[in-house]
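Hi all, long-time lurker, first post. I run a small reading group and we've been trying to get comfortable going from sequence to structure in the token notation. Rather than ask abstract questions, I figured I'd post a concrete chain and ask someone more experienced to write out its structure so we can walk through it together at our next meeting. Sequence below, copied exactly:
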Amino acid sequence: MSYFSINSPPIFAKQLQIVNTILHIDTAGPDALIGISQGLQVIASKQNNLSNTHGEFVQAGVEQLCKATALQLKDIDAIAVTMGPGSYTGLRVGLASAKGLAFALDKPLIGLSTLSLLAKAAIGHLIETRNALLDDKQLQVFSMIDARRMEIFGGIYNSSLAYLAPEKAIILDELLLLSLLDNGPLICIGSGVTKTKTLTQHPDFQNKLPLFLDCSYSIHEMAALAVDKFKANDFEDLAYSGPAYLKDYYQKPLIK
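-- Answer (accepted) --
Happy to help. Here is the structure in token form:
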């Protein structure tokens, strides 16, 4: 099933100051997202929660977004896509679609980290709720995506979204969480939160716990990070860029 929303009419360069119009594609998770933003404003978005139809959804959805916003593909200034980590198949689907559009339209490709997007969403939540943690200089945001068993894809950031630890595959355990909590307040966000909560039932966590956020990123976070990369001319190489799996990908042999 897909969901469609139009948030505001598009801004054309001749009407107001020039703004960057960016098409966003995210097929890294169970739900796929596509959208169009102008500057920091998301003008239209669409969501699909049938993971085995993400490819068809992106192709048809981009056309629907353009029609709904009265924009043409030539009006797009850049294509932004989530590079991972996430679903191996989903990442390949999204990146192939984004590369195809970027090549056909001769537009730059912007690669976005799903873990950075989660961190951006966490900081946005603190701002919305006026949480005092936002003022703590020792704040750590632990973005985590479930990678089965007790493994996650993780990255740790400060409140300015600067890396405190690189993005990588991580085996979760109590000692890791306790050491992070010793460094300062800890926020956990992403699909790895559920398994992380089970670890904090240990008696050592009685007096200190992470803040667990039950939320994810949206096209709004994609727009914010994509605009920064566009302004910095931080683009992907169409020929050589690939998904950020963060661990080796092995394709299962076909059973004959």
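A couple of things your group might point at:
The chain has two domains: 2-113+218-231, 115-213.
The mean pLDDT is 92.
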